[in-house]
Amino acid sequence: MQSALSLAGNVKGKRVLDLGCGLGKHAEQLIGKGAVVTGIDASERMIKLTKQRCKDRGHFFVADFEKVNFKPESFDLIIAAYSIAYSNKIDYIFKRFSSWLTPKGIMIFSLYHPIHFFRKIENFDFSKSRKYWIPLKSYDVEVFNYYHPLEKYIDAIR
């Protein structure tokens, strides 16, 4: 988490979108550094926890990043920590994200390392995109993600 935020540089006064804000850890740190943060998450529970963590600083709401609409050039920075793995529409979402960024805006995102899948899913085929389910024991839930080969992300970014 800290390395992703260090890539952002000075965020004071910047408009930041935290995609899949989860528990609000990034949002809290960004607000503490002077950013104007908007956070979305598909989970009502996570949005509630983020609002509590950020003490009503920032704007947080339940939304699906494949469906939510923001005006073009609304953000200077988009951060997506592991959240884009919830989409099977890589080309589509990167086009949307790009339209939300200012001309000099940047996007920082993280993906699970392939060893993550190798350890959890027997005979995992790294050459193909696929949906998979992962139990999150600490939350007592099972969530889905999509795995895509790295070249699919590179093509979408281009």
Description:
The two termini are 25 Å apart. It is built from six helices and seven strands; from the N terminus they run αβαβαββαβαββα. Helix content is 33%, strand content 29%. By secondary structure, the protein is α/β, with parallel strands linked by helices. The chain has a five-stranded parallel β-sheet with strand order 3-2-1-4-5. Strands 6-7 form a two-stranded antiparallel sheet. The longest helix is centred in the N-terminal third of the chain and has 11 residues, at 44-54. Strand 2, helix 3 and strand 3 (59-62) form a beta-alpha-beta unit.
Features:
7 strands, alpha/beta, five-stranded parallel β-sheet, two-stranded antiparallel sheet, 158 residues, single chain, 6 helices
Class by alpha and beta content? alpha/beta
Overall average residue pLDDT: 87
C-alpha geometry: globular
Bin the strand percentage. 25-35%
Main sheet characteristics: 5 strands, parallel
Order of helices and strands: HEHEHEEHEHEEH
- Any low-confidence stretches, pLDDT <50, length ≥5? none
Strand order of the largest sheet: 3-2-1-4-5
Tally of helical segments: 6
Distance between the termini: 25 Å
Count of beta strands: 7
Radius of gyration: 16 Å
> Roughly how much helix do the residues carry, as a percent range?
25-40%
